[in-house]
Each structure stands twice: as structure tokens, then as C-alpha cells.
Model the fold of this input.
Amino acid sequence: MTSPFRTPDGGRIDRATTVEITFDGQTLPGHPGDTLASALLANGRHQVATSIKLGRPRGIAAAWAEDPGSLVQIEAPFPEPMLLATTVELYDGLVAHGLPGQGRLAEVPDSARYDAVHHHVDVLVVGAGPAGLAAALTAARAGARVALVDEQSEAGGSLLSGTDRLDDAPASQWVAAAVAELAAHPEVLHLQRTTAFGSYDDGFVLALERRTDHLGTGAPRHVSRQRVWRIRARSIVVATGAHERPVVFADNDRPGIMLAGAARTFLHRYGVLPGREAVVFTTNDSAYDAALDLHHAGVQVQAVVDARPEGSPRRDECEHAGIRVLSGAVVTGTQGVERVTHALVAPFADGEVGASSAIGCDLLLVSGGWNPAVHLFSQARGRLRYDETLGAFLPGEELDGLAVTGSAAGGFDLAGCLADGQRVVRAALTALAIPPAGEDPLPAAPEAVIPAAPLVLWRVPDTSGAEGSTSFVDLQRDATVADIARAVGAGLRSLEHVKRFTTIGTAHDQGKTSGVLTSGITAELLGIPVQDTGTTTFRPPYTPVAFAALAGRDRGRLFDPERVTALHQWHVAAGAVFEDVGQWKRPRYYPQPGEDMEAAVLRECAAARTGVGIIDGSTLGKIDVQGPDAAVLLDRLYTNLMSSLKVGSVRYGVMCGVDGMVIDDGTVFRLAEDRFLVLTTTGGAAKILDWMEEWLQTEWPDLRVHCTSVTEQWATFPVVGPRSRDVVGAVFPDVDVSAEAFPFMTWRDATLDGVPVRLARISFSGELAFEVYVNPWYAVAVWQRLLEAGRPYGITPYGTETMHVLRAEKGYPIIGQDTDGTVSPHDLGMAWAVSKKKPDFVGKRSFARPANADPLRKQLVGLLPVDRETVLPEGSQIVEFRADGQLPPPPVPMLGHVTSSYRSAELARPFALALVRGGRERIGDTVHVPVNGTLVPVEVTGSVLIDPEGARRDG
Amino acid sequence: MQLIACPWCGPREEVEFSYGGQAHVPYPDSPAELSDEQWAHYVFFRDNPKGRFAERWNHSAGCRRWFNAIRDTTTYRFERVYRLDDPKPLATELASSRRSTAP
Done:
């Protein structure tokens, strides 16, 4: 197969190797080194897709990431939507098709690996064009730690696209030597195919390295496909070049219309002729290079259309080559359907367009000047300044630690860019106190030809009669001059509003070609200076980044840490169904064959209430509080008195914030005069340790107390139920477990085969219960001893669901489920846990606020559905009927909501806990809960539904 | 991502820190003697200035120490950090504000 538009030689492609790709079902040849776009052009194909709203044919309009036209989807070797043909490197077996503005997500999971690397440098250089290479070399030679990143497949930047010479040889030789020199410096990291897509505070830059995308099916499995580099640089040099800017005219979106510089890239880098017959439309001198290079490569250049009345000093060069130059002329429109066939050219003077005539062509090159790629500078909150000569926005201030150089700073001659790259990095090195190397030569570049002043021309007046509705500003959004006019006509003045009204700049390319055009056209329509419209905010990412790359390794099981108890494998083997409690995996219930959750929980509850159950409570937060002032600290943080607690005893306590609302609860063991073990809720462990440390450090640094988390140092197994004494007594024969010798709310140390074990009489179910604490190394052994000893009594492991039912039946609240940060201890019916003796504790003063004494505060009560059948959904609202038995008119006042709701084995009916306005006064009343559109009558009760006298706790 | 200079550890990434609100709002000596309004001011009211603000920060994923910082709320720049036992900054320091040029 031959490619008709491939040049006979030249370019940076591997002509010795031919690869085959499939595009829109057509098999096409290409070479390694091609992009999908250059391979399509080599085969004469310009149209890639159709546009999103209007369905107009669209083609390749640029040569890299600024292209608004060539959206494609890759189907093989791995489906990936929304890529640009201009940035997809070619490999054998590539299957792709053009996209009508939007792609389709892959339907199979992405099996590739993605990862991230942190990197720290003295100097980060972004862009390996002439300015960036010069900067990187100078920094490397000075011995600085350097990173050089560049988004292309090879270094060189603009030198890859032209015919420049350095040191009297093709510039590519200098590039190769520079790359080799950088590679020899051990402190230099040089990454190609790596896009710095975001710059953030304090020298932090994110860059995406595409490591295997270009290898296709040959990508090794062990190498990550893409890598996010998290680079922290003491100094950043932005050498990101410039994007060529189009001029807007009627029907400027046809395939075959391309930026002039892109045509040079396709010719010199890829060995491709983008057409046979070209018209070049320009406002500046740079496009003359394209006209002459294409002419010399054999393209028939029909005319250079220069909008400037005085033309260019390079006119002679063209005319000498036989190229017609029309000065003071513009392209007013085009003809053609799937490819441009004619450019309509008209005289242009003083903003007035004359009569047009058609010039036949299959390629229309456009240049309206160059926009420095200031994205990273602007993201770092650098202010931009509008340059009237260039018609572009340039960095408008100096930033600490970030310098812009080369054409990104508005420099457009090679010698100047090289020198400026060296200058800015030397200044950066000086600021870092790194002396420059003695030997630091720059290559000799030919003396720059001073170009004639460009003309700033955003758009050609529309003489087609379409009134700007085919003059495309943002090709990806099908947004036109008419759309901007409509926005301005609707009264919009801010460019941010124009952007949102027209959607310009919101597509895949984020306005790389359309952004500055919109600034200029909007300013023109408003009759104000372009400086005053400014630009829209540049935000990361510079080019699209796959979520998979941002996620990196933090996917699936690695998304968030999983905490498991020492018994986890036992739970898994026992068939537990797990639930997430914070980061913990906790058994929710242990279904037996044929059981659903409801059946399993009823069985587990019955066992704990009538026989014996056991639960893995190891996730409870545990804080070791030590020091001579430990009791003082706890007295200040708990609502009740802890200093009076005797060694060997346990007390339940509640903690409030300064606002008097409950933040946590749990039991406190006094281990010694100067040592307590504080138990917190599973979810509150870290928060309460923080809370204690905050008060100790910020308010009471005089207290001699240390707090240490010991959550994972103790495995904890509550053994619960009327037969629990038998079980614990059997496992610990040396311990007198009688109610007299081992009373409720006390703890004892014991040993089991020499292993220290701590036992405590604590109950979260109202039943006789013992908590067994042991070093997690021995957790499985102790757990199995307890199971063995419990077998005669049918000991039943139970999960968190049963634990919740048992505690709710007793009215024990779960902080964070039955409370929401607006609930005081009094609201929970826990006035008994609030000390009246202590002069102060955190939250005490708030209890005296009038709002806290309001009898209509929401209070925790029980609810019993009258039908004895409905399990009220948690979160349900509660309403009441008026005296006449009717609902009040909407909006119906809400009395509160259901906080916990379960089916009770003991009560043989469902029940709930709820926060209800003035709830304790309503005990005995009937209120209603809407469930699936019907109002379910429920009786308000006290919150303790089982054993309100507490007769069971001693067995 | 900003770097925050912990007075004990040096510059670390901001994700290691947690915010503690306005600094120099001490717990009242005798809450019981305060009026409801005075107590409510302690519990609920904090300044929200545009410009320099003395704040509490905690190096929660590092040394876990609390410290104070003067930060400009318009530029996010940390003007300086200081220890809890260092003196309260003068009003003149908090009043002066300058536009950051930091990246």
C-alpha cells in the first residue's frame, strides 16, 4: 500500500517499517513516528468527524493538542473515547473512528495499571523546545536537580516542525546532543510524552506521563500505562510555546482548512503533504514559511492572502518562487462540502471587504498570529497582560518561583528564545543560591529576520448573508460569531458569562484556539479594549486527564484503607455478612443456611436474651489516659465525675462540645490513681483522641497527662446473656464471677494459660454480660475457648445488627445515629449522667441557656407501631393529627424523626427510637409516621422497652 | 497543594494539617459568671476578616502539635507560624496585608 500524500523522503518517521491501522473501517498504512492525524493526511483523508450540534464535516485543523477538529475514539487494542487524532501515536493494529463531538465510555473494565510518583527538584522545566532545552541544560550544568517534561514523543518543540539550523547544522543535531548531555547528568529527570497539566501552590505541578499508550498491543503488562508525576519544584520554568490562532470567517470549519504552522509540522515532522493546491491566509509573517516550504515540497500554492495593506517584506521571496501574494486581502468564505474546494478572496481595507472571487484549492492555511501558552502561569494565579501588537495575552507580572520563557513569553525568534531560556533559569538558580557553571555555551542561531508588524484581525466581516452563523469561533461547540453577538445582545459583559452563554471554551480543547478569539470578538462587539475583557480563567487540566490516571493505584480495595480485627478470618469462615463501620469491616450478622438478615438477627437476639451470645467488639475506640492529672482532664471533658471513680471500677460517661451537645459516649476504666482506659464509639475513636489532645495542648498545657490510642492493642469480646456467667466462669476458673465478688461496672485482671486477660462487667444489652479484653495475638485462641465453653449453652456469635437491636430495646443511643449534634444529654434522658457537683466541664455553661430548658426540645423516646407489623424506615418524619382527627394543612409540622428502627424478638413486634419534639410529655400519645404513602399510627413510649428496672444485668 | 511550615517539623503538604479556626479565643475563666450573650459569643462567634487572620492549625497527620499561624485569607499565604506559647500578634501586624505574588 502506498500513501499518496507522503513525501518521498524527510520527516521523523520510520519509513522502513509500515504499520496498518483501521479508521472508520478502512485499512490504512502508516509508519512509526506518525500520529493518527498524519497517517490520515498521508492517505488523503482530511475529514475525521462531524460536529456535535450541526453535524458539519470536520477535519484536522492543527497538529497537536490545540486541534479542535479531529476527535476520535479508539476501539482497539483498548477502548478509549475522546482523543485527538493529532495526539494519538500510531501503532500496528490501531482501530479508531471519528466522533460526532462526543464519545462512548468503554463497557469493559480498564485492566491497565496507573500509578503516581512524587518527585522533588530544584528546577522544573516544562517544554523541551529551544527555550526549555536551553534552560534545562544551564540548570543541569550548574549541578541543580532538574526535571524536564515535554508532552511530545520527542524533544525539540518547534524545531521538529521547521527547517531551523543551529551551529550551522540541522537543529535536530543540537537537540540530540542536548538530550544526550541531559541524560549524562545524574540529577536530571527527562520525561517525554509527559504533559504538565496543572500548576498549583508552592511550586507543585502535576504531570501526566503516557508510558505505554504508544506501544499498542506491545505494551508490557508490568509497566503502568500512565503515571501522574507529583512534582514539587523550588523553581519552575514554563517554556510551553505558543498556539497559532486562526482568523474567523464564514465557513471556516471545512475539512482542509488548517493552521499554517500545522501544515509545516505535517510536512517536516511527518513527511506529509496536507494538500495539492493551497491558499495561505495570514495576518503576519510566520505563514510565509509555510507557503514557501509547501511550495518547495511540490504543493501548488495558489496565493498568499495577506490582510495587511502593506503586505510583508517576504512578498518578494514568494513572488520569486512564483507564488502570487495578495496584500490587503482576506478570505471571506469557502466552498466545498466534505473538503474545501475554493477560498473566496476579497480586497480588505479599513475594515471594509470588497467583492470576492473564488480561488480553487484543497488546502486553506490560516494564521492570525500566535497565542503564548500561558496556561500554567495563569493557573498559578499570574496576571495576564494584553499585548496589542501581538494580539495576545502575555504574562503580566513576575511570580516568585515561576518564570515564563520562549514563545510562551511572547518571544518568536530562535536566537532570542535560546538566550531567554538561559537567562530566566540563571536568575532562578541565583535565587536558589546555585552558582552557574563556567562552561555553558548556547548554540549559534542565525540572526533573526525582524518580521513586519502583524495585523490583529479576529474575524473577517461576514458578507455571505449568514450574519456570522457559519463563522465558527469554537468548532468543538459549534459556537459562532453570531452566538457571541447574541450573548452581548442579551446584555452579557463579562467574558465568563459569554463563555457560559455560548459554551465557547467548555469542550474537550478548553478553548485553546477559541479563547483569545472570543476575548477579541467580544471586545470588538462591546467597543471596549481587549485588555478589559481579559480571558476566562485558566484551570487545570491543560489537556484531558483520564480519571483512571488520577485514581492511580487507589482503586477497588486500595481506594480506602480497610481495618480488620484479629478475628477477621474467623468471621469470614463463619460466613459473616460484613458492614463498613468507618474503615472497619465488622460482621453485621452470621446467616445460617436459608436465613435472611431478619431471620438471622431474630435468632441472634433471642440467643443473647435467653442464653448466651458473643460479639467481636474489638473496634471500640480505646484511649490510654495517663498522668498525675488524668482524673482532672476527664472531669473537665466528661459531663459526669470521673475523679471519684475507684480503681477497679468502670463508669459510663458522656462528652459534650462547648455547645452542650453530645459528641461521644462510652465507659471509662480506672486502672490506677493516675491511669484510665477510655472507651469511645468505633467511629469516634480518632475524633475523641484529637479532642483530648486539643484541649491539653491549647487550653490546659499545665496538666500532666498523656493520651495514647490503644484501640488495636486490645481485642474485645462481650459475652452476653443469662448464661454468660457460666461461660466466663468455665474459661476463667480462678476468677470468682459471682455478682457479689464481681459486681456490675467493675473490672478484674485474670490470666489464661499465662496470657493476661482483662474482664469487665459492662452491658450494652441490659443482660448479664462480661467483656473479655486480650492482646490481639491471642484473640483467636481466647475467642475459641469462649465458644467451646459456651457450646453447652448454644453460644451464638452475633453481629452489629443484633448489637443494635439489643441496645435499642434498652434505649441506649448510638451517638451519631440517634443524635445529630443538636442533642444534649438531657434530650437523651441522661440528666443522671450530668454532674451537678462539678463547678465546670466542657458544655456545662450551655446547659443553662434558655434554649436548653425548652420543654419542646426534641427528646429521645420509643415508638411502637400500633399495627405491630410495620418496621418504620429510619429517617421517617413524624406528624400528629389535630384534635378533629385530621392532618393540619400543609406544610404539615414535623415533630421529629425516627432514628433507629428494628424488629424485636423479645417484644415480638417492631419498635423504634425517635427524636420527638417535647417527646417525654407525649408518652402514651399516638402520632403518625408516613410510610410508603400511608400514615402509620404509632404509640409514643419511654425509650427503655425491655427490663426498665434493670433486673437482668446481674443475671 | 500548599506547603505549610509546621513550627516543629518544617514545611509539609497541606493534607497533613487540619484547621482549628480563629486563634486567641481562650476558654473563659469562669463560664458560669458569663451572661448568655457573652457565652454565646465564645461558643458561636468568630471573626471572618478579609486579609490577615490569626488561626489555629494542627499538624494532625504529622507531629500532632497545635500551632498558630497568620494567614492572609485573600491570598492563602501563610505570613508566619508561631507556637502556642508565643505572644499574641499585634493588631498592626494583622491589619497590614499585601497581595501575594507567590505561585
